[in-house]
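Handout, page 2. Input:
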Amino acid sequence: MKKNIILLAGVLLTLTSCSLSEELNDSITKEASNNILGADQALSSAYLQLRSFQNNDNQLMLQEHPSDEMAGPTRGADWDDNGTWRALHLHTWTPDNARILSSWEQLYKGLAFALDAQSFTGITASQKAQAVFLQSLYTFYITDIFGQVSMREPGEAVINLPSKNLKRTEAIDFAIQILEAQLANLPDGTAATSYIANKNAGNALLAKMYLNRAVYKATDADGKPQAGPYTFTAADMDKVIAYSDAAMANRTLQTNYFENFGPTNGEVSTELIFTAKNTNTEGGDIQTLSFASLHYNQTPSGWNGFVALTDLYNKFEALDTRRSASVPGFTDKHGLKAGILLGPQVNENGAPILLRDTPNTQLSFTQDFSLTNSTEEKGMRVVKYFTDYSKPTRPSNDFVFLRLADVMLMKAEALARKGNTAAALIIVNTLRVKRGASSFVSLTLSNILDERSRELYWEGHRRQDQIRFGTFNAAVQGRATVTDVHVLIFPIPLAKLAANPNLVQNPGY
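Output:
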């Protein structure tokens, strides 16, 4: 009965995703087994659930809104949403926050599919390794965001409460252990097949988990996170370096930075290590990442919401291509640049785009904004996954989880934490020169944190990075106060506490 229940959910999830499911599964050798279709379907569902990261409601927002990169101003009645977005930026969220609840549900749904795939007797070694990679990935995110993980073993009956309940200090070791055991069984892959869990992806995820391990180990007995400074052991940093080297094999930096996020990124980018695949006929809501920021009168018409913080914009040199750039097939179509948008905005003919509420006045984005009462032009906007104008509501941009530049910076950080700043400097300057920025003469850990922001802004890494470097609780634009250490992890949603007595609310909530 258990398999039928979970499998039905997988079938419903993938009814409109047949071609992608076939593409994912065609990369796996199928055994002659009565159960193999069940394993295929459950594994496909675990992959497809990754699309929950790419919209403006779930876990991506928990990594960006509380950071020094993003905010969500209220504009009259627009974007008030009962204070949900303000609470994320102000670090005043509560266990009933809608974004926290939806993130919990989406992450645990993916974890359930990954576990279910492993319960079928006909599963191949490659399928098993991919399912374990996804289990490790979902476990890592749950650990990072919520500080504890509750899960069933593969094949365990759903009528019972989950038997495995891991504290923050235990969950990170578990996620590492299961992935290391299956790493050799992951398939080889290329940047063009980065939507399939592969050895490069496994190595990159292990590097990221070892890099953050010190943060999760710094937890009080009652589950309260410690603020650091954290103890990054030489052994863990050696693991980061080794796994990063393996993850970077057969990947090169993309010449045009924004091609890593465009409609053809899955075909042209040489940087991609692990992604969630989208096509013009099926996919998630990746277009919402641009729609949520763009103004109503821009094309595509946006919802005039999320903005970039001044601290982010000011980190860039003028010639750094990552800050803003014209993109053929995008800028010439409707005047939009990719990256951070500041100042007067024009259409494809150079004519002014006008404000909605003030006739005959040009739209000009400003660096300042108010969380509680912004007018429509306030705040810089961001277009990272620029739109495919042939299919603006179903774009084919693949969502990027892991890519080469991230791994390079992880290795540089590990080297620097071991005291080898000379080797780290070479890596960082290689990246900076590729992006049109000047080379550093020397390097500090603070430089590396800033470089991660320049390279990875609005990609879902910033909260995690700031916590690791000890800057997350500091005051930023729109938040004048230093916040308490308990907000380093989010609360367990109230409905989930009521459903599972093995869960314990995180301290401070």
